[in-house]
Amino acid sequence: MALHIHPSILAADFANLERELQRIGEADLVHVDVMDNHFVPNLTLGLPVVERLAEVSPLPLDLHLMIDDPDRWAPDYAAAGAASVTFHAEAARDAVATARAIRARGVRAGLALKPASSADQWLPLLDEFDLLLVMTVEPGFGGQEFMAETMPKLAQLADAAAREGRDLRLQVDGGISPRTIGIAAENGANSFVAGSSIFGSADPGATIRELRDAAQRALEAAPQR
Ligand SMILES: O=C(CO)[C@H](O)[C@H](O)COP(=O)(O)O
Ligand SMILES: [Co+2]
């Protein structure tokens, strides 16, 4: 599976989102964090903004829903023009039905796990999802320290996907920088969200290249799964 770099616009200038999107043309998808001040103690943006971003973005949208009641809302976000919609296992009443509703709209379905959430119950259900997101910080805020203690869970998911021959996107989100991306790639990640390291850079394109190269080098040095 190719490596994908997803800049998170949580770290962008919210007054100039269309202009900010022009700075990350070398990325693969743009990561959009939707927060409701209930599931996480922070509030960002909602459906109307996502719909406009989908219209103006040169890159496909990767939505990360940090909201209560994703069963109700995820299908509407899928219909808003996103390429993938990821919701949290901890918030969903019926994660499989919600993933199926997202896929029914021709959109990739992702399941996110907070740092303390186990992957065990999802291992027999990997076929129901296109993407698994292992949070590498507590969701809610950008600019936090990468939590290396989440790596065994990532490796567990990567091993299960390899055993099943699944082409699963395994995403990490939080504290990803040229310093930390290698350990995530070694443990099986192939999709990397980075907010502050990309938008905080004077040259976001160069940082995207640096992230991609560091992930590729770590992957090549790691034993094959
Ligand atoms: O989902 C998120 C926070 O809940 C963000 O996507 C994430 O924090 C990215 O920001 P940074 O790279 O600065 O950690
Ligand atoms: Co995110």
From TrEMBL:
**What keywords are annotated for this sequence in UniProt?**
Carbohydrate metabolism, Isomerase, Metal-binding
Q: Which Pfam families match?
A: Ribul_P_3_epim (PF00834)
Reading the lineage from the top rank, the first entry is Bacteria
Q: Where is the active site?
A: 33, 173
Instruction: List the EC numbers from the record.
Output: 5.1.3.1
Entry similarity comment: Belongs to the ribulose-phosphate 3-epimerase family.
Tell me the protein's name.
Ribulose-phosphate 3-epimerase
What would be the name of the gene that encodes this protein? rpe
